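Journal club side-thread
Mid-discussion, someone asked how the predicted structure for our own chain would compare to the paper's figures. Pasting it here so we can look after the session.
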Amino acid sequence: MKFFVVEPCASANAYEIKLRTHVLDLKKAETALAALGTVAAATPAVLLAKIDGYTVSVYASGRLLVKGVRRLESKEVNGLAERLMSALEKADAVI
């Protein structure tokens, strides 16, 4: 069973990736995301990154919000979620 879920976000053309029982170390997450794309901003509460043409907001609470300029397809987002979570795990950002 996966330790995260991917759901459409009702308030925006976006998808949420939610960790079931974990939180994120944003300092380590910043390094992981920089290897996948560009980190545009980093604060103690949230990271903003551009990855594969998507804007990804990463919150310390374990929530990631993926927004795109075009309609997102769930298959596409699931693949991106797998890549993001794999990179975050390898960087020991999932705690």
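Post-session note: The helical segments are 26-36, 74-90.
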